[in-house]
Specification:
Arc Repressor Mutant, subunit A, 3 domains, 3-stranded antiparallel β-sheet, alpha+beta, 22% strand, 242 residues
């Protein structure tokens, strides 16, 4: 399954009907006419939205027999994704990752219910386990959110500290942006990593030349693992702004 791009997901989620379709599909598989009644829009519009979701590999479909007529095409969620988007002063982080159900260790989540494949839990066992574990898991998620907020504030504070120092020393916005990127990459980055995160290297030539003349960075041509000529930038360790 192809990885989703953040822009693609944001485009999909920008439409309220596509969001509602995804919400309904988290509950149960649905067919287009059923979704059109739930959303109070035409079946044609629903079909168009489902195509967008299917093109993004978020939903899939299959034919199921119907008791009252011909087989229907039911749509279901194809994958679960986690979208994270954080914006603040000197802080912009956007990421998306797939939550693969195959990676969920059910025997670790509900160990006391794993009594053998042939034995199904009773209602009481299942509900008692749910009342025990779900609040614990929810509390754990809340604690993770608190810890994430602390780390984001620390990240933001360090970025702001470096930004203010460089700004005070008359570095341009483009220079500061590249230095912050280089620091976050532990002081060294290859051409392909630069282009993935910051765009075409040709557009950064002026910035790189200025930083090299200021003795902030050094550049190097090297051969990569495939024997091809590559280019990297390294933050110098003997920087003096005096």
């Amino acid at each position: 399954m192809n990885d989703l791009e953040i822009d693609q997901v944001l485009e999909i989620l920008s439409n309220k009907y596509r969001r509602e379709i995804l919400r309904y599909l988290t509950i149960d598989d649905r067919y287009a006419f059923e979704l059109s009644k739930l959303l109070e829009i035409s079946q044609r519009a629903v079909t168009k939205h489902l195509k967008s979701l299917r093109d993004a590999n978020l939903v899939s479909s299959k034919k199921k027999k119907s008791k009252i007529g011909p087989a229907r095409e039911y749509f279901s969620l194809n994958k679960a994704v986690i979208l994270s988007f954080t914006v603040g002063a000197n802080l912009f982080r956007a990421s998306i990752r797939s939550l693969n159900e195959d990676e969920i260790m059910r025997d670790q989540i509900t160990p006391s219910l794993q009594l053998g494949k042939s034995k199904e839990p009773t209602f009481n066992e299942l509900f008692e386990e749910g009342m025990k574990l779900l609040p614990e898991i929810r509390e754990g998620l809340d604690l993770l959110q608190i810890q994430q907020n602390k780390l984001l504030r620390a990240y933001q504070g360090m970025q702001s500290h470096i930004y203010d120092y460089l700004d005070k020393n008359k570095f341009s916005e483009d220079e500061i942006r590249f230095i912050l990127f280089l620091i976050e990459q532990e002081g060294e980055v290859a051409k392909n990593e630069i282009e993935i995160s910051m765009g075409s290297l040709s557009k950064l030539t002026k910035t790189l030349n200025l930083l090299e003349r200021k003795n902030i960075i050094e550049t190097e041509i090297f051969q990569d693992e495939k024997g091809l000529s590559n280019f990297r930038v390294r933050l110098k360790t003997d920087i003096s702004l005096n």
